[in-house]
Amino acid sequence: MPRAPFLDPNSLDCSKPLYSREQIYQVLPQRHEFSQLDGIIHYDANSGISAGFRDVKPDEWWCRGHMPGQPLFPGVLMVETGAHLAAFVQHLLMPIEGTFLGFGGIDDAKFRGAVVPPCRIILVGKIVEARPRRFIYDIQSFVQGVMVFEGRISGMPLKAN
Questions:
Q1: 129-153 confidence digits (pLDDT tens)
Q2: How confident is the model over 75-104, as a mean pLDDT?
Q3: Is 83 exposed, middle or buried (0-12, 13-18, 19+ CB in 10 A)?
Q4: What pLDDT score was predicted for residue 152?
Q5: Which DSSP string corresponds to 64-110?
Q6: What is the pLDDT of residue 2?
Q7: CA–CA dist 110, 124 (Å, integer)
C-alpha cells in the first residue's frame, strides 16, 4: 500500500513553473539525455515539500529498446528524475559552492505502475534530513494522479571539476 501523497499532484500547475528546465540545469551538471526534469512547480522550505515534472515523449532515446513496440519509461530513469529533484532542492536549501549532490543510494523503492509515453510525471518530494554531508529525500511520482513510484533517495555533496 503506498503512503499518502505529501501533496496532491492534481493541485499543481505545471504551466507556471517556479524554475524552468534551463534554470534547473544551470545548477545541476547533467546534460543531454540525462537532463530529466522539465520544471520545478512547488517549493516550500518550511514544510520541506517540493514538486517538479517531466514530460515523457514517445521519441526518446530509450523507447526503441525498452520495450520494443511497447515503450515503458525505465524505473532507473524514474529514480534518476527523483534524484535530480532532490539535488535541485538541496541546492536551494543549502548551496555549497563548487559541489553538486552525488547519488548515494535508494531505499524502499516501489514501482507501482507503468509509465507509457506520452505522459507527464509529477514528482513530489519531502526532505527527511538535510546536513552538509548528507541529504535524504523521500520521493513520490504520479501519472494522472496515480502513484507510479516511491522511494527514499540519499546523496552527498561531491566536488565539481
A1: 999 999 999 999 999 999 999 999 9
A2: 94
A3: buried
A4: 98
A5: TTSSTTS----HHHHHHHHHHHHHHHHHHHS--TTEEEEEEEEEEEE
A6: 84
A7: 15
Cα–Cα dist 67/54, whole Å? 20
With the CA atoms of 142, 145, 147 and 152 taken in that order, what torsion angle do they form, in degrees rounded to the nearest 10?
A: 50
Q: Break the chain into its structural domains and give their ranges.
A: 10-159
- CATH fold label, 10-159: Thiol Ester Dehydrase; Chain A (3.10.129)
Residues designated as active site: 66
Checking if the pLDDT of 58 tops 90, the result is: yes
